[in-house]
Amino acid sequence: MGAGTFLQNAWFLLIGVLLAGYAVLDGLDLGIGVLFPFLAKTDEDKRTLVGAVGPVWDGNEVWLLAGGGALFAAFPMAYATIFSGFYLALMLVLFSLILRAVSLEFRAHDPAHRRLWEAAFVAGSFVPALLFGVALGNVVGGVPLDARGEFAGSFFTLLRPLPLAFGILGLCAFLLHGSAFAALKCEGGLRDRALKAAGALAGATAAAFLLSFAAVLAYLPSAAGSVPAWVFSALVWLSLALFFFAAKKGRDRQAVVLSSAIFLGLWGLVGAIHYPNLVRASDPALSLTIANASSSPLTLKVMLIIALAGMPVVVGYTIFAYRVFKGKVRPGPDGY
Amino acid sequence: MDAVFLARLQFGFIAGFHFLFPPTTLGLSLIVFILETLYVRTKNEAYKRLSAYLVKVLGTVFVMGVATGISLEFAFGNNWAAYSRTVGDIFGAPLAAEAVFSFFLESVFLGILVFGRDRVKPKTYRLSAFLVFFGAHLSGLWIIIANSWMQTPAGFRLEGGRAVLTDFFAAAFNPSTVVRYVHTLLAGWLTGALVAMAVAAWLMLKGRSATAAAALMRVSLAVFAAAAILQLGSGHAHSMQVTKTQPEKMAAFEAQWKTMNGAPFTVFGIPDEANERTLLAVRIPKMLSLLVHFDPNGRVLGLEAFPRDERPPVFLPFAGYHLMILFGLLFILMAAWGLWLQARGKLAASRGFLRVLILAVPLPYLANELGWIAAEVGRQPWAVYKVLRTSDAASAVVPAGNIIFSLALFTLIYALIAAAGLAIILRTVRGGPDGGPSEAGKGAA
Q1: What is the predicted pLDDT for the residue at A332?
Q2: Would you say residue B439 has pLDDT above 50?
Q3: Is A111 touching B (CB cutoff 8 A)?
Q4: A144 in contact with B at a CB cutoff of 8 Å?
Q5: Looking at the complex, does the CB of residue A244 fall below 8 Å from at least one CB of chain B?
Q6: What is the mean pLDDT of residues B168-188?
Q7: Long-range contacts: A236-242, Cβ < 8 Å, 24+?
Q8: How far does B370 lie from chain A, in Å, by closest CA?
């Protein structure tokens, strides 16, 4: 198993950055989506929460499309294997994302079916928040692949202990992140409830992290030898502990930074134990790696130029947009 | 049922449904940008209210486009894994570039258009309108690059059965990219402009917001008329390109069975593929040769010139192509009628014309879908012209039952979205640009 060329390594890193960017940004609104029925007591609470994510969720979700597009362009073999192999699971994610995408807009303008669209927002946030971790757990933990690199399992192959542990961890981390963002954007009782949830979720995330940790050590014993993996684990623990105190003391901005750091630690950890694999096969000789699943050097180079030219600009105007909408959300008279 | 057939059916359904929205976004974002520019120039509040009114519609249409567009990003891997493996080296790049350069831009600045009216200066708001317009048009370019590469692939070589990029610009600006891009943009302008004209017409018929309705009609009629005329030229250029680069597709468009010098243009007919003839054909002699070669005796290849297993189906491409042209000509007539009424100052009072505008709203959508069907069915039996057959492109590991399941759910969810979205757009339009008490406030979504 070669370690790959510079370009293949760069793309492994870049896709990691795009997916981590997705987790940090869309995590804000996925988390709020799942917490929505628990945090909102009144109609005004609902409008406030929806107002917090309304202007930004769409831009956040593009990070997933960029990450998926980059996977397609840079490692088409892995993209093809994952998307065709995990067909039914990804269809569930897709249907959730579709309903979620229209839910906020339709909720605001279709008052007769407001409950339906709110349910779509909540369910459409919950399913991806859970299944992203399950999918990641499968490619990291290993799935049966045949000699052509095609998935050789079924839907139920995907539901083994390690992927399920990753799914629960992902869900907890999204909820944690969403609760901190809700505290940052809201006031009064809503903010108090968000902070209280954040404290409890810190405990749940710690438990889920231990569970995933144990699953990794049990199923991928070689991971224990990775120094970066231990460093990133330490980052997760440290951020989680600081998050707990930030939530207790009501430091909402700090909490959002720390929950973002937890995601970065988790992605770093995944990268450390997964590299140079893209899809680990049950038989290691058949794994799809950055070396055997990538596009040609020219495509990787062109794509790198596109990414380096485009992404700094994206980051720039995304920061601009968050500044335009910064501060506490005040629910308007008719929706937002 | 055959899994490849089901995968095609599913892709056709989700792509065809998605294709209702982006053309509307192209046209409406242009009109919103024009209105914002007029507002910044003249400080006339009517333009601002009109723009806010259309931004609500644009917001709903855009969100539906986003929701249904995600499916397509998934579909190449879900259902077309063999395709992704074979041509991913080239095809993945424009999709990723579209996200990086366009999706972020459109999404972030649409957020400002819809929610940020009171949070930014008018000039920043206009800039946001421009960036949504620009992002939508850039997005169209990348997706047309990807699709055109399937029609007229270039800039690659085959290596061990896989297409490998050799020249990025040759692949991106392959022989059909530019003309197909222009043709698609103009189709979008026609669509968005006709929607805006219909809204203005409805306001005029109801006698509401007369000044605003007249301003909206003026702007959208100008866009519509310009696009309708230009589309005639771009459609012609596109047909010449198809004749040159995919002659069997042009033969299918025209149900041209035999190769001949001085080929006629078939105005009407019913292609009978089994017997290779066209029933009830009405033909203009030598017209096809004249149109595609500027020479009445030019040679046009017939379907007979191609091996049977490389011929596209004829009926759908023929019907789609001809109906699209018919609608295109109707748009020119409608534009001329409108301009004539406007020049005489009688447009707002011409109830007949205003009703026609409203009834005509489905036509550009039909024209878009028919043109797309003609283009993609006319590409068969190839997924990538002369590189990869559609029958070899589908996912090997996805059983037919899974596709039936997903197709059933797509149908349900899309029907729900279509019904709710249409109802919301109609409600927004009924609210009018000046708004009732329930419509006051910062704006949509």
Answers
A1: 57
A2: no
A3: no
A4: no
A5: no
A6: 97
A7: A236/A209, A236/A262, A236/A265, A236/A266, A236/A269, A237/A209, A239/A265, A240/A202, A240/A205, A240/A206, A240/A209
A8: 25
| pLDDT value at residue B175 | 96
Q: Does A153 touch chain B (CB under 8 A)?
A: no
Rounded Cα distance, A29 and A125, in Å: 8
The mean pLDDT of A115-125, rounded to a whole number, is 95
CB A144 within 8 Å of CB A153? yes
Q: Does the beta carbon of A143 lie under 8 angstroms from any beta carbon of chain B?
A: no
Q: Output the pLDDT for position B380.
A: 95
Question: For residue A166, what are its two tokens?
Answer: 């990753």
Q: What pLDDT is recorded for position A327?
A: 82
Token pair of B127 as six digits = 């800039």
Backbone angle region of A256, left / alpha / beta, with phi > 0 → left and psi within -120 to 50 → alpha: alpha
**Alpha-carbon dihedral sign for residues A110, A114, A120, A126:** positive
For residues A5 and A329, the model is more confident at A5
- Please state the ipTM of this predicted complex: 0.91
Mean pLDDT calculated for residue range B393-409: 94
Position B275 pLDDT exceeds 80: yes
Cα–Cα distance, B200 to A265 (Å, whole number): 54
- Contact predicate A36/A42, CB 8 Å: no
> Which chain B residues in 384-413 lie under 8 Å from chain A, judged by CB atoms?
395-398, 402, 405-406, 409, 413
Cβ–Cβ below 8 Å for B115 and A74: no
Under DSSP, the state recorded for B294 is S
Contact B231, B190 (CB under 8 A): yes
Position B179 pLDDT exceeds 60: yes
**Residue of A66, A105, A295 with shortest CB distance to B89:** A295
Residues of B in contact with A97 (CB under 8 A): 67, 70
Burial B389-424 (b: 16+ CB within 10 A, else e): ebeebbbebbeeebbeebbeebeebbebbeebbeeb
Contact B378, B144 (CB under 8 A): no
End-to-end CA distance of chain A: 54
Q: What is the pLDDT of residues A42-56, one digit of tens each?
A: 989 999 999 888 888
Q: How far is B19 from chain A (nearest CA, A)?
A: 15
- Single out the residue of A181, A247, A187 nearest to residue A29, CA to CA: A181
- What is the DSSP secondary structure assignment for residue B311, as one 8-state letter? P
Cα–Cα distance for residue pair A74/A297, rounded to 1 Å: 9
Q: Provide the residue count of chain A.
A: 336
- When scoring A113, A298, A304 by the number of chain B Cβ atoms within 10 A, the one with the most, hence best to mutate, is A298
User: Which residue shows structure tokens 């029609």?
Assistant: B151
